[in-house]
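Re: beginner question about structure tokens

> Can someone show what the tokenized structure looks like for a real chain? I only ever see the sequence side.

Sure, here's an example I had lying around. Input first:
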Amino acid sequence: MGRKVTFLVSLLSFTLGLLSLAHAQVIELKFSNYFPVTAAQSKICEDFIKAIEEKSKGKVKFSYFGAGTLLTATKMVDGVIEGISDIGLSHIAYTPGRFPVTDVLNLPLGFPNALVGTRVANDFYRKYKPREWERLHVLALHTCGPKFIFSRKKPVLRLEDFKGLSLRGYGYEAELISALGATPRAIPMPETYDALLKGVVDGATMPLEALKFWRLAEVIKYVTECPEVGKVETFYLIMNAKTWEGLPLEIKKIFEETPFEESLAKMWHEIDSIGKNYGVEKGVSFYNVPKDEVTRWVRAGDTVVEKYVRTMVSSGYQEKDVREWIKFVKERIDYWSKRLR
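And the corresponding structure tokens:
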């Protein structure tokens, strides 16, 4: 009887040991995103989670926190660095001054669409590896489509049309709005619909996806597409550096083979297309900047670029380096625009 009890105890201990070992081999990661759970940006995060869990055969498990339930957009970087979340998605404009070098990507340099913007952003990061990211592992940078001119009462086609208008915008887009001749108003995105509906502002600078996903096609009548001064927002998908360093090689390989960059680029491009189609359905009129106006708009955008150069130089960066970044971005915009045509 004693031997039987001893055998059962040993068997139980062995089984518990295997279960404990199996549990220890499961890597549990927290993934945070501030977008609403119904947004395309949230859906693609869920797709990434599913793909990695399946490819790892259960060795990686995620706890997903959407809609800012764990980290808000402005707290994402610090939250990931501090380990509150292992992975996070947000964009650099929510932390002004935090990524000054990468901010070059947010200048009005002529981005035509998100496909080009996302590839240029990652080319820039891979070439220069700005030290401002050194406490993080960048899974992918990505950009929304270029921000165009949305207006309520009249189409904006010439610089003179900006006079007297107030447009929702912040950061570099606010500077561009001022350079074009209008007055910028820093209104949070969730409040923009009401601000347009009530006439608090005459328009906004937005990517086309906002026509549907922020319902702005209901409160504006005109869109002026101006890719010649196309300005995007640069988003990031980041991981805590220590978390990344602690992953087994086979798990790192799964992350590296997951097409974050490609999938994010396509997602942003697709929702811009959906937004424009929705705008057409709602009766929004679309215009392009007249050819004889393009040079004037570009010159206005150049004043924003030059201000960035002066600011970076006054902060201790070499002017030749800053201008090299700008030159590189423009060259990559041209390269990808031709390749993806």
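Each token stands for a local structural state, so reading them left to right follows the chain. The chain is about 45% helix and 15% strand.
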